[in-house]
Amino acid sequence: MVGLSYSSAPVTILERVVVTGDAQVKLLQDLRLSESIAGSFVLSTCNRVEVYAEVDRFHGGVAAICELLARHSGRPAR
Q: What is the reported pTM?
């Protein structure tokens, strides 16, 4: 699981990372195309965004998820 919540990020960041509608569909498509990720789902509410995924390599999977979240939100990965 990779994610952000109100306890780990300010609301201004959460507002930019929220994934709904067409953006959620696009993120799920991009996650599916990742070589490191076998399956995933995204949970996005007003105070958290979480990606749960089955990965073949832990570090590669986490890096891929972080990079995709950053790309979809327009925020740099940290």
A: 0.81
Q: Of 12, 22, 46, 59, which one is the catalytic site residue?
A: 46
H helices within 1-78, ranges in order?
A: 11-17, 21-33, 58-73
Give the model confidence (pLDDT) of 2-16 as tens digits: 888 888 888 888 888
Looking at per-residue confidence, does 74 or 63 come out higher?
63
Rounded CA-CA distance 36/15 in Å is 27
pLDDT band at 78 (very low <50, low <70, confident <90, very high): low
Instruction: Tell me, yes or no, if 46 is annotated catalytic.
Output: yes
